[in-house]
Write a structure and sequence with these properties.
Blueprint (H helix, E strand, L loop, with lengths): L3 E3 L2 E5 L1 H10 L14 H8 L2 E2 L9 H7 L7 H9 L4 E5 L3 E5 L15 H5 L1 H18 L2 E2 L6 H4 L1 E4 L2 E4 H12 L2 E7 L2 E6 L15 H16 L2 E2 L5 H5 L4 E5 L5 E4 L4 H6 L10 E3 L10 H8 L21 E5 L2 E11 L4 E9 L7 H17 L4 E8 L4 H11 L5 E3 L1
Parallel strand pairs: 2-12, 17-18, 18-19
Antiparallel strand pairs: 1-2, 3-5, 4-5, 6-10, 7-8, 9-10, 11-13, 12-13, 14-15, 15-16, 16-17
C-alpha cells in the first residue's frame, strides 16, 4: 500500500488502506503485532473498554475482549479488575475500564463538584456523607444496601429518575472517592478508594489541562482512526493527533503519532487469516457509526434503546465481520436455565458472498460464541434470506459438537 504525505499536508491513504489499518492497529481484530494474552495490554492498546449495563448474552466489555484474546474467559478481566487491580472501572466520557496506572487522570477528588452537587448541594452532601460513612464502617456495599426511605427518594439524573443513593454512588465513583471493589452479576460493590489503591500507583495530582489532554489522547487511541475533531481537539493542538485524508471521503481523520509507521506498512487481511467475528454492540471497531458508514457503507444501530415499533432487526442485534467485510447480523439471547444460545434471527447482508467458506467460518464463530457462554446448545430461528438457511444449518451441524443444534 502507498502512503502519500508532505510536510504541509495530511497523510493520504486509500479506502482499502484505511480499512486494513483499523483491522491491523494495536488492539485490532487482526493486530499486526499479534493478539494480547492479558487484559492489561489489551486495554492499553485499545485505550478503554466501554462498560454498559445491558447484558443479554454477556457484558459489552467481555464481548470485546473475547474477539481479541485467544481463549478469553470472563474471569480474565474480572481478575485484572478485582483481584490484581491492574485495571479499574471509572468514567472517561463513558463508563469504562481503564489501566490502573492512569488512575491520577481520573482522580477528581480535588476537582470541582459535579453537576448534581452544584444543583442539589445540601441533598448531595447529606446522601454522599451517609453512603461514605456506611461503606467506611461496613466495607464494600452495593446499591441494594441503601434502601432507607431517604435513599429511595428519586432524583432527576441522566435519562430519567434514579434513587438518591444511586446518584450518590455514581457521583462518588466519578469523583474518585469510591472504586468498584467487585461485582456480583451486574451489581457493583463499592469500596473507599484509599482502601483499594495499590501502593505502587502514581497518585500525583494533575491539572485540569493535563486531564483534558489525557482524555483527548486516549480518545485518539480508542478510535484508531478518529473521524473529525470532536473530543480530540486538545490532542490535535498538542501535536498528538496526525491528520489523515482518505481518497474519496471529505472528512479529515486522525491517528496517534506512534501509529504512523504501522499506517505506512500495513497490509490487507489475507484469506488464510480471514475468520468470522461476532462483534460487541459497542466495540471500538463499530462504535463510531458515521465512520462505519463512511468506510464500509454499513448502517448499524444497536436497537436495544430503540422503541420496539421502530426496530428494523432486533434489540440486541450484533454485526458479523468476515475478513474485512460485514456479511451478516444476528439477534442472540441466552437462556441460562436451559443452557441454550438462541440465534433468534440471522440476516445475511445483500452483498454477502455465497462462498462456502463464509458458511463454514460463520458456523465456527457461532460455535465459539456458544462455547464462550459455557458450552451451551445452539438454537437457530429464522435465517434471511431463506435460501441460505439450509447451508448455514449444515455448516453448524458439522462444527457444533459440544451440544445439539436446535431450531425454534
Amino acid at each position: 500500500m502507498v502512503v502519500r504525505t508532505s510536510a504541509a499536508a495530511p497523510i493520504t491513504i486509500s479506502l482499502d488502506h484505511a480499512r486494513a489499518f483499523l483491522l491491523r492497529r494495536p488492539g485490532g481484530l487482526y493486530a499486526s503485532d499479534g493478539l494480547p494474552d492479558h487484559p492489561l495490554p489489551l486495554v492499553r492498546q485499545i485505550g478503554i473498554l466501554q462498560v454498559d449495563p445491558v447484558s443479554v448474552v454477556a457484558a459489552n466489555h467481555h464481548l470485546i475482549a473475547r474477539t481479541r484474546m485467544p481463549g478469553y474467559l470472563t474471569g480474565h478481566l474480572d481478575d485484572a479488575l478485582y483481584r490484581d487491580r491492574t485495571l479499574v472501572e471509572n468514567f472517561h466520557s463513558i463508563h469504562a475500564i481503564l489501566p490502573m496506572e492512569d488512575w491520577r487522570f481520573y482522580d477528581r477528588r480535588l476537582g470541582p463538584p459535579t453537576r448534581m452537587e452544584v444543583a442539589y448541594p445540601e441533598i448531595m452532601r447529606q446522601v454522599t456523607e451517609r453512603v461514605l460513612g456506611a461503606i467506611r464502617e461496613r466495607g464494600p456495599l452495593a446499591a441494594r444496601h441503601f434502601m432507607d426511605e431517604d435513599d429511595r427518594t428519586p432524583m432527576e439524573y441522566g435519562w430519567g429518575t434514579t434513587r438518591r443513593s444511586q446518584v450518590a454512588l455514581q457521583t462518588l465513583l466519578r469523583r474518585g472517592f469510591l472504586m468498584v471493589h467487585h461485582r456480583e452479576g451486574t451489581q457493583r460493590f463499592y469500596e473507599l478508594t484509599e482502601r483499594m489503591l495499590p501502593p505502587d500507583v502514581d497518585v500525583t495530582p494533575v491539572t485540569e489541562t493535563e486531564r483534558i489532554l489525557h482524555f483527548a489522547q486516549r480518545d485518539v487511541t480508542y478510535a484508531g482512526l478518529a473521524m473529525g475533531t470532536g473530543s480530540i481537539r486538545p490532542a490535535i493542538a498538542a501535536g498528538d493527533a496526525v491528520p489523515v485524508t482518505i481518497e474519496g471521503i471529505r472528512a479529515t481523520f486522525y491517528i496517534a503519532p506512534d501509529h504512523r509507521a504501522q499506517l505506512a506498512s500495513v497490509t490487507p487481511v489475507t484469506e488464510a487469516e480471514r475468520r468470522a467475528v461476532i462483534l460487541a454492540p459497542l466495540d471500538p471497531f463499530v462504535w463510531d457509526r458515521k465512520r462505519l458508514a463512511a468506510l464500509w457503507g454499513f448502517d448499524y444501530t444497536w436497537e436495544v434503546y430503540v422503541p420496539a415499533a421502530k426496530r428494523k432487526y432486533g434489540p440486541y442485534t450484533l454485526p458479523v465481520l468476515w475478513g474485512d467485510h460485514f456479511v451478516a447480523r444476528l439477534d442472540p439471547s441466552l437462556d441460562r436455565k436451559r443452557r441454550v444460545l438462541r440465534v433468534k434471527n440471522l440476516w445475511f447482508e445483500d452483498d454477502a458472498p455465497r462462498d462456502p467458506h463464509l458458511f463454514t467460518d460463520l458456523a465456527a464463530e457461532i460455535a465459539r460464541f456458544a462455547t464462550f457462554h459455557g458450552d451451551v446448545a445452539v438454537a437457530v430461528g429464522t435465517v434471511y434470506p431463506a435460501n441460505r438457511d439450509k447451508r448455514l444449518r449444515a455448516a453448524l451441524a458439522r462444527v457444533t459438537t459440544l451440544a445439539a443444534v436446535e431450531t425454534e
